[in-house]
Amino acid sequence: MDRISRKELKADNFALEVGQTVTFVEEHRQDIFRYGGIALAVIVLVGGYMMYSGRQHSKRQEALFRAIQVQESPVGPPTPGANRNFPTQEVKDQVALKAFGDLAATYPGTQEGEIARYYIGAIQADEGKLAEAEKTFKEVADKADAKYASLAKLSLAQIYFADGRDQQGRAVLQDLMDHPTPFVSKEQAQLTLARFVAPKNPAEAKKLLDPLRGMPGAIGTAALTTYSELPQ
């Protein structure tokens, strides 16, 4: 096995922890929303980074942690025990975009910078700025390492299907199925594809779901639920 640096080893531990968070999120998600993949990936990053950041203290990691804290802050009247509240979602989004934007500009080409850029795309998508979000996610997909690129590709697929570009969305998900990562497994991409093709082609969705229904854990449960919701 090739030698890896201490820094790379820590990054691999982060990847493992984020991968474990994927299972937790899938297990507790009830429905898939229009931009469900985007929200899922953001939650995955939050959960994984929260576990990881407790043991890390570099300036980049601290900056990312602070930006995530902004993103996770509540909106509305002050909440007891909360460090920060924002009067509206719009105000919160602007502060979060600046925090993530500054981080991405200050530390380009780093893992923290790519995570920050991913968050920017997620916020843009939540604001309905799909063209901007698509551009941001493409940058992450093209420049980040395979793990973070796979998250960006999963979000791109969501945008493509939501925008009626089914063939592009299908191609991205097929690529993820062919090249799984610790952050996006083959089964997760396959399940996502089944959910999107189900309204127009339930027969294909059933074919995609059949090998997943017998799997243990979150993927099997989600596949069974999706299968039960297919038109008979």
Count the beta strands.
0
N-to-C order of helices and strands: HHHHHHHHHHH
Low-confidence stretches: 1-36
Radius of gyration from the alpha-carbon trace, in angstroms? 18 Å
Tell me, briefly, the overall form: globular
Number of domains: 1
Measured distance between first and last alpha carbons: 50 Å
**How many H/I helical runs?**
11
CATH classification, class level: Mainly Alpha
- Strand percentage lies at under 5%
- The helicity comes to over 70%
pLDDT averaged residue by residue: 79
CATH architecture: Alpha Horseshoe
Largest sheet: none
CATH topology: Serine Threonine Protein Phosphatase 5, Tetratricopeptide repeat
Oligomer: single chain
Structural class, from helix and strand content? mainly alpha
Description of the structure:
Helix 7 runs antiparallel to helix 8 and helix 9 (186-197) packs parallel to helix 11. The chain is mainly α. The chain has helices spanning 6-28, 36-53, 59-72, 89-106, 111-126, 130-143, 146-162, 166-178, 186-197, 202-213, 217-228. The protein has a single domain (6-183), classed as Serine Threonine Protein Phosphatase 5, Tetratricopeptide repeat (Alpha Horseshoe), CATH 1.25.40. The longest helix is centred in the first third of the chain and has 23 residues, at 6-28.
